[in-house]
Each structure stands twice: as C-alpha cells, then as structure tokens.
Amino acid sequence: MPEGHTVHRIAQDHGRLLLGHALRVSSPQGRFSDEAKHLNGCVLTKLEAVGKHLFYVWDNGDIGHVHLGLFGKFRVAKGPEAPDPVGLVRMRLQSPVATIDLAGPTDCTIGTAADRARILARLGPDPLDPKARVDVAVGGIQRSKQAIGAILLDQKVLCGVGNVYRAEALFVTGIHPSRPGSALCDDEVHALWAAVVGMLRQGVKDNRIITVDRSELDMPRSGRFRRGEATYVYHRDRCLRCGTPIQTVELGGRPCYFCPTCQPR
After folding, report:
1. What's the pTM?
2. Is 156 among the catalytic positions?
3. All residues at 6 or more sequence positions from 26 whose CB lies less than 8 Å from its CB, including other chains
4. Most buried residue, 129, 146, 172, 259, by CB count within 10 Å?
5. Residue 118 appears among annotated catalytic residues
6. pLDDT score at 223
7. Pair (32, 69) in one structural domain
8. Among the options 31, 254, 255, 260, which is catalytic?
C-alpha cells in the first residue's frame, strides 16, 4: 500500500495537470459510470491529500474520494490525445494536457463536504500537514498500551505512515518496536514525530523512500543510492549502521524490522 509521501506527491503532480480545467470524466470499466456522467465537464478546483486519502473538489460542490489500498494505481499519459485504456480503469480524468487513469482502488466515490468530514474524523494528524496538531499525535501515542510499532500503523493516531516509515523512524530514534506507547517519554515521542515528518517530506521530494543520511555512506549530495542502501533496517539482512542481523516482530498485522543492538528493549 502506498505510504503518505506517495499520495501527497500524486496530489502535487496531478494538480499541475488537472486543476482549473473542465475535465472529461469517464469510467472505461463501468463501475464509476454514473458518477463520471455527473462530473463530466466540471472544473476541478482543488486536489487534497490527507494521509493515504485523496480528495477531489469540483466546482459543482461534489468532493471525490480515492483510497488506493493495496492494488490501486494511477497511470498518467501527457498530451491532448487520450490513449486506449489499459486494464480495468475505474476512473479516467482528461484535461487538455494529460489523461490520468485510475485502476484497482479500494475506494473511488463522490460525496459532500460532510462525507469528507466524516472520513477526516477517523484520521489522526498527518505529519505532512504543516498545521498538524503534534500534541494530538503525542497524546494518542502515550495513552495507548499497545506496542509503538502497532500504534504507528493506526491511522486514527497519525495518518500516512506505513510499514517502511514506521521501521525506519523507530530505528533512527533508537526505539524498540515492542515498547508500549505509554512507556515512551515526551522527548522520545517528539523525536519520533520529527523523524516521521522529515522522512515523509524527503519522500515527497524524492518521489521514493530514502531514509538513510548520505553522510553515513560518505556519499555526495547528488549521488544515487544503490539497491539496499536507502533504508537502515527495512527488508535488510543486517543493520546498515552496525551490521547486526535484523530481526522482525509481527505488529499491526505486518512484520516490523528492527536492529536489536541499535534499538534495545
């Protein structure tokens, strides 16, 4: 499932191609046909990312909602001509400069501002939101007796973090993933929040997940990461920093990677 940086990057990239245009909206697959007819010809006025959710605001007052889930993908074709659909395209958005196809999402619906508000009410603060309430995230973590590795995947506590960023943020802060959230001190939780914010922002900028500090690899600022060098512990055999064999623990239904040396319990 795409993590928050991917969804925010999608909003940025697609916004440049779609915003301010009266769009041709269709559903080659057919499952979004009624909604597409309703939106066809409307102007997209805002494209917003919150955690792993996308909201499309139209000039007729409707708000579209997309959650990619495990299998959802966008395909972008630049230029005025729309290519033939590839696969089961749920929604096609065509502007004068690009065609964007969506296939396989968990959710692709249209609703109202009230529907958007109900979705947002289920989500915790988004680390990529400059106005995010850090105190709300800190409180949500410290009130929970669950393992911090599970808490970080709970979108009700903070939204946008997935399996890679939780492992890497816990590593750089030296926190064992099995420690209860209620056992973390203020400094630890604030450091964890700062790590998540920094990593997600870098992910939006790079359009990929890179959590390793280049200075640790003696790499120039413009150098490219080789395979396996972009993360400290996630999906690695050994810790990039100390060489200790990586261990995993099942938390939140997913394996959480950690270094037992750098993250003592």
Report:
1. 0.92
2. no
3. 33, 36, 40, 91, 92, 94
4. 259
5. no
6. 60
7. yes
8. 254
